[in-house]
Specification:
alpha/beta, 10 helices
């Protein structure tokens, strides 16, 4: 069996770390990782690196994902999330490689209460969401052998996500507020990474949603974290973050998984419990 050469960009990020760790324990795989040492927005640098390492699969985890930062730095957000994806897709096509592009539920507006499938039309309302959608479009247009994987409320392997903020508040006994009108599904990096790896040797292409099953509000999510960690659940107060009774929901339906029978995601509560037990 021919050995895959897998290039992971953004390997120091939350998902990149987990993928790198899992793949380095795998057989028939050669893993190459880059992070800040390679600027994905530099087309010539990406082209030269791809020519040197000759990947069969590129997993693009490089992303500017701080939504507030993206709002204030639009040019940088599009440069990393869109132009970076364009450069990698071009390199993948030239190398006849598969590219796996990690994306987000933020490509949707959040203004619909029904679960969103891979066949629903994206309508992002944030700079982050628009830049990630632009990256998706470049990947789709420039590399035939592509997989675009969207997930939601991803947590793990970082101290800057919502999960870590809640844990910090619980540990310090700091009261905080959480929205009851923000709905989606928490998804851990280990679970998302396992799904990505399940597609490495498959000939599946296109867009896949990959969120844990079930849904919750930010408040329910925060309260569940506190409870499982053994912290005071009364530290979190439910509030309405949106005006005029609007509910922001980016609940992803893993429809392509079900249509193809390729994978089955676990429930978000079971996944959260398992993740906390592993800490």
């Amino acid at each position: 069996m021919q050995k895959n050469t897998i290039w992971i960009t953004g390997s120091a990020g939350r998902l990149g770390k987990v993928l790198t760790k899992l793949l380095k324990n795998a057989t028939n795989v050669k893993v190459i990782t880059t992070d800040t040492d390679l600027d994905v927005t530099d087309s010539e640098a990406v082209k030269q690196y791809a020519t040197l390492c000759r990947p069969t699969i590129i997993i693009n985890c490089a992303s500017l994902s701080d939504s507030a930062y993206c709002e204030e730095h639009m040019v940088e957000a599009f440069r990393v999330n869109a132009i970076g994806a364009r450069n990698l897709a071009t390199a993948a096509r030239k190398a006849n490689a598969k590219i796996i592009q990690l994306s987000t539920d933020d490509v949707f507006s959040g203004m619909t209460a029904v679960p969103l499938t891979e066949f629903d039309v994206p309508d992002p309302h944030s700079v982050y969401g628009r830049s990630k959608l632009a990256g998706e479009n470049y990947v789709r247009e420039l590399c035939p052998k592509h997989l675009i994987i969207r997930s939601s409320w991803v947590y793990g392997e970082t101290s800057r996500d919502y999960f870590s903020q809640v844990v910090s508040n619980g540990k310090n006994g700091t009261p905080f507020e959480a929205a009851i009108d923000r709905i989606s599904t928490p998804t851990s990096t280990p679970v998302l990474a396992q799904f990505v790896l399940s597609l490495i040797d498959k000939t599946e292409y296109g867009i896949y949603h990959a969120s844990c099953e079930g849904s919750c509000s930010r408040y329910e999510y925060a309260r569940t974290i506190l409870d499982l960690m053994g912290y005071d659940t009364t530290l979190v107060t439910p509030v309405q973050a949106e005006r005029n009774g609007v509910v922001i929901s980016t609940l992803l339906e893993n429809l392509m998984m079900k249509l193809t029978g390729t994978y089955e995601m676990p429930n978000w509560q079971d996944t959260l419990q398992a993740y906390i037990a592993s800490l």
